[in-house]
Design a protein that fits this description.
alpha+beta; six-stranded antiparallel beta sheet; two-stranded antiparallel ribbon; 28 helices; 14 strands
Length: about 750
């Protein structure tokens, strides 16, 4: 899995896992780069210091790239050289638990008191020691008989028992009472002195059974073999007072058999991002895993944040995650035979007859009981109904993402939830200026997981799930279900969202799809801010008469023009995604020896396309301010005419001015419930992270509180909230999310 840091483009491209290098190094075999046996070798030390050109080594040396195990593994392998690198690491501050945090304590107290008020009438809330554990997954699925915790291939098992590695002086960064309430946890427990000890794994919660899950995955389109919970740990499942089952786990709690060449740790940057975005997505109404708490500590790991050969020590941090289950598409890929492209296979290949029926039946019984209870259906038909429903859930989920302008960043099959919730927050990002080709993950050189590609990639992943289930569900059945279910579910849900965002109640009017497409084209052409443009459409009322359609009101046009990007913003954010020397090398290979690149997991056409885009960016001119203003004016005038004409159709049946006013009120309510004002923009997360790294967690609490009400106009008594609704400040315009955990 990938985790995120924010890296200015100007500081990327020199280290072992640089964005430019990743086209070639994405398939680095463990035995070449990451083996613990090579810890002291001059080869590895030179990699660590960024003095060795890995690209030339792999191309010239002809090393076979075995799988798409992602360059992040190389980054995560850097901590193996901590003893070598200590002299280059900047000093860090003293024990974090000794640093006074009055503002943070005040915000935590306010959050807990608010939660206590909201939950005051609810009975059945519990202390940590009394949670109602029912760890049915560990009772139902095969467990690894080997109890020693060392990195290995795990055959014939879905879980391996592990224990969290303790951290020094754990301290609570932030907690979500609403998420923890899913476990029936009393919010006052957050304030207990040993809460951080429990949320870090230093003290095990009674009833918990810690284990790591085995799964595989297609990463960036290539099968990578065994992956698994390299840093996450299953704690157990709690059945709450409403009868809901919630699994919760730690992320960053230490080594597991699936840690590959990493250390099983996560740092504060990625942990805060995952925690905040999990909760932000929930309050936006999007199915998601939840963030219960984030804890940091005085334990340290080494990370090369900017891939520049300048490693630093960072604090080990742990996120508590909550979901119905963390079983994923990749869980069913452990039986996959040898992949012809990567040479990798699932660790339990050949055991599908023995294991797969148990896995799929446990999944359906536990998470799709309405299907399992259909005893009138043959078992294969129940399998098919299960598959069809997960296809539909996935289609609706990605439609939700598209509607709110959110990019996942790493839509590998191991990051796809079997119950259709957003899973694994790494280099994600909300759109600022609209760009359909936006790539939120700086390591996604080929743009596989761009914003506009997300629906097709999710459908592709559903196809891979069908292949994984082929042993119990014939492909002709599952593929037919995929073809009939995904597109229809996506289109229906997406257009429902779009109509609500536009304030359109009628569904019997033709041309709404074209209206949406033309709006997106206008936003793309003018680089309008995604969130603010949608939010402000509520200020465009239904025209009172057909005569009002003759002319576009100047104030409405100015409203839309104010959301577009200036030339300075366009120039600041125009990105060269790869250093030219790296791209030119690949471009030459693509033209002279195109057969080499596919063996490295690189699409020659994508390289040629990227070279053309790079050259176009360097030739591009945004024109003079006057030319740009005229172009934007023409673009939005044309769209606004179409929109107002469509709005007028909503007024059919309005017999009076009062009827029209009531219609507009209903529209505004609908639009304000659909178009958020506040989202977790990257620059907001970055500001909170910077403060937290300086041992001030108050902004994390404040941002969480703001994101609880994303559709509001702001919190009472908090005029500064409007700052969080603004476009990125100049310092943040070149921030890029990439791999670093």
């Amino acid at each position: 899995m990938l985790f995120a840091c924010l890296v200015p483009f100007s500081q990327r491209g020199q280290g072992i896992a640089s964005t430019g290098a990743s086209l070639v190094t994405r398939h680095v075999p463990h035995k070449v780069l990451l083996s613990r046996d090579l810890k002291k070798s001059s080869f590895c030390r030179s990699q660590f210091l960024g003095k060795f050109d890995l690209r030339k080594t792999y191309v010239a040396g002809g090393l076979r790239q075995e799988s798409n195990s992602i360059q992040c593994q190389a980054e995560e392998g850097l901590e193996l050289f901590e003893d070598f690198a200590t002299a280059t690491i900047p000093k860090t501050s003293g024990p974090i638990s000794e640093i006074p945090q009055p503002e943070t304590q005040q915000m935590m107290k306010a959050s807990v008191e608010k939660a206590v008020g909201l939950l005051a009438r609810k009975t059945g809330l519990r202390k940590l020691e009394n949670l109602n554990f029912d760890n049915v997954t560990l009772r139902s699925l095969p467990i690894d008989p080997t109890t020693d915790n060392f990195i290995r291939q795990v055959r014939g098992a879905n879980f391996s028992r592990v224990s969290p590695d303790p951290v020094k002086n754990p301290v609570l960064v932030c907690a979500s009472p609403e998420a923890l309430e899913l476990l029936d946890l009393d919010p006052t427990e957050i304030a207990r002195p040993d809460f951080a000890e429990h949320m870090s794994g230093n003290k095990l919660i009674p009833g918990a059974e810690t284990a790591a899950h085995c799964y595989c995955g297609f990463q960036f389109g290539y099968f990578s073999g065994q992956l698994g919970d390299g840093a996450a740990m299953y704690l157990g499942e709690v059945v709450n007072r409403r009868g809901e089952r919630w699994e919760f786990q730690f992320k960053g709690a230490g080594l597991t058999p699936y840690s590959r060449s990493a250390d099983g740790r996560k740092v504060l940057r990625s942990s805060i991002r995952e925690f905040l975005c999990s909760e932000a997505m929930h309050f936006l109404g999007i199915p998601t895993t939840r963030g219960g708490a984030v804890v940091t500590s005085d334990s340290k790991v080494v990370r090369d944040v900017f891939y520049s050969g300048n490693p630093i020590q960072e604090r080990c941090s742990i996120v508590t995650r909550i979901a119905p289950t963390f079983i994923r598409f990749g869980s069913f890929e452990i039986f996959r035979p040898v992949d012809p492209n990567t040479g990798r296979e699932g660790p339990s290949v050949g055991l599908e007859d023995e294991m797969l029926p148990t896995m799929i039946e446990h999944t359906i019984k536990t998470y799709y009981p309405h299907i399992w209870e259909r005893q009138d259906l043959p078992i294969q038909q129940r399998y098919l109904a299960f598959y069809r429903e997960i296809v539909e859930r996935t289609a609706r989920l990605v439609a939700d993402w598209q509607a709110v302008g959110w990019c996942h960043g790493v839509l590998n099959t191991d990051n796809m939830s079997i119950v259709g919730v957003t899973l694994d927050y790494g280099p994600f990002g909300f759109l600022d200026a609209y760009d359909p080709n936006h790539i939120c993950n700086g390591s996604d050189d080929q743009g596989r997981y761009s914003y506009q590609n997300q629906p097709s990639i999710c459908k592709w992943n559903c196809q891979k799930l069908a292949e994984a289930l082929e042993y119990v569900l014939p492909l002709e059945l599952s593929e037919a279900a995929l073809d009939s279910a995904f597109d229809s579910a996506f289109n229906a849900h997406y257009m429902g969202k779009m109509r609500a965002k536009l304030g359109l109640a009628r569904t019997d009017v033709e041309g709404d799809e074209k209206l949406v497409e033309s709006l997106l084209q206008a936003m793309d052409t003018t680089r309008a801010d995604w969130t603010n443009t949608w939010r402000n459409l509520n200020r465009i009322p239904v025209p009172a008469s057909d005569e009002d359609l003759a002319q576009v009101p100047a104030e409405q046009l100015e409203l839309l023009l104010s959301k577009t990007a200036s030339i300075e913003e366009l120039e600041a954010t125009a990105c060269k995604r790869q250093p030219p020397q790296q791209l030119r090398m690949l471009f030459q290979l693509a033209r002279r020896s195109p057969q080499i690149l596919p063996s490295l997991g690189i699409d020659p056409d994508a390289v040629i396309q990227q070279m053309n885009l790079w050259e176009a960016n360097n030739r591009s001119s945004f024109g003079s301010p006057m030319e740009r203003e005229a172009s934007n004016l023409a673009t939005w005038s044309e769209w606004l005419k179409s929109y107002r004409k469509r709005l007028r159709m909503e007024a059919e049946g309005c017999a009076s001015a009062e009827d029209l006013a009531a219609l507009n009120r209903r529209r505004v309510e609908l639009m304000n419930e659909t178009n958020p004002k506040f989202i977790l923009r990257n620059w907001i997360a970055e500001e909170a992270i910077k403060k937290a790294e300086a041992a001030d967690f108050s902004m994390v609490w404040d941002v969480l509180d703001l994101l609880r009400n994303p559709f509001s106009e702001g919190r009472e008594g908090k005029p500064d909230d409007q700052y969080y609704a603004s476009r990125p400040p100049s310092w943040a315009q070149k921030l890029c999310v990439t791999c670093s955990s």
